Amino acid sequence: MQEDENGSGEYYSLNTNIWKLLEINRKSDSRGRIHVNEINFGKDIRVFVSDVNQELETCQHYVLLPHSIYTEVRKSRIKEQVGGPLKVQSSGDVWMGAGHKNKFVKVFVRIDKE
Fold this sequence. Notes:
Blueprint: E1 5-6, E2 11-15, E3 19-21, E4 33-35, E5 45-50, E6 57-59, E7 62-66, E8 71-73, E9 93-95, E10 104-110
């Protein structure tokens, strides 16, 4: 388990000192895709989907996403990469797959430390 995120228990939790919520208020399209802009190409991201658009809970410097409402989307097709984080394509698109069509999406990007 990493110090910046936790997927056990009743919540997914992300440290807001490390992860920033992208301000995109959208649903995935009919192909299971979301556009997060080209400037996020190559960045480490975490994607969560839900059937409902619920405000996020915060506690101190953590964002909490209930397991009962949100599901984290990870890679599932390439055998060597199963369970790995999704990637932003050079076009700015993130492909989540057909199982995540028309879902509410919360995307977090790792904050660059300079």
